[in-house]
Amino acid sequence: MRWENLTADPAGNPARDAALFGADAVTTRTFDTPEFRGITFHEIRAKSIVNRVPGASRMPFEWTVNPYRGCTHACVYCFARKTHSYLDLDTGLDFDSQIVVKVNAPDLLRRQLGSRRWHGEHIAMGTNVDCYQRAEGRYQLMPGIISALRDHANPFSILTKGTLILRDLDLLKQASEVTDVGISVSVGFTDSRLWRTVEPGTPAPERRLEAVRTLTDHGIGCGVLMAPVIPFLGDDPAQLRATVRAIAASGATSVTPLVLHLRPGAREWFMAWLAHYHPHLVRRYERLYAEGSYAPKWYQRRITRQVHELAQEYGIGPSRAGMPRRITAPEPAVPEPAQQATQLTLL
Length: 347
Prior knowledge:
Elements (H helix, E strand, L loop, with lengths): L26 E4 L9 E5 L5 E3 L10 E3 L2 E2 L23 H5 E5 L2 H9 L9 E3 L9 H5 L2 H10 L4 E5 L8 H8 L4 E6 L5 H7 L6 H13 L4 E8 L7 H13 L5 E5 L6 H12 L4 H7 L8 H17 L34
Parallel strand pairs: 2-6, 4-7, 7-8, 8-9, 9-10, 10-11
Antiparallel strand pairs: 1-2, 3-4, 5-6
Helix pairs in contact: 2-4, 4-5, 8-11
């Protein structure tokens, strides 16, 4: 396993930068409990936790924090699967079951936020693998991370499929009183049969939407990233309507659709899944994604238009790409115009 390939260089060039941790700093553990059976955890002490997003990325943010690598959510389409190949691990089962845990993430983040070189830029979390995956229930890294961001009044956003975020509700409320906090829950569809095969390690879609309702009921505005919309399996007009209707009923502040994209690493694993469960769709997918990782623009525009029309019908509006939602802070001495609510997207 090439632990030395975890480098601070966004291009991942181990020849130019020292490794983020040494191989002698890795502790490997397994836990004989039902929720962690078959999963191996590699505990490391990272040297850096705030990561700069490469300039060529489509992401609308510059800095991320990822306390984990690999994800027990086991979503067959996850674009982050490729990153496991940098460790000489496969992008399929190893990604689902070999989890790297940066056990010193909260302390390291607090130290970096206090550095004179840090200027309080927005930090996005959950954009690579889910920071509220099952491992978080044992390692409990997020309370320390949110506390550090709160104490430094540093703006941040979280994208998750994990209902465990509700454990940190009080911390999120405290943070929202001093800085901009954007929360988004990912729900691409409400079809339970599709969920069980394509996202087997995640909470059910209805549980995620219950989490949205709880967050909004407690004054934490929460949008929904309707992702991924899966061609030929989750894009029927009736399915889109059912999903948007459920999102609206949850009290979500916005809904932003994102069509499935299949990057290298994820593409091979997803296509193997498709051949097993829906072999009649393999040729259609090969044609639809013949030009690369993304579905054709005409298809993406069609889905976006349909979802936005449904959102308008059900009383929730689309969001502007690239902006975190602003949680209203306590009123200043001199009233200021209210800012429009927006939601972070991955477009």
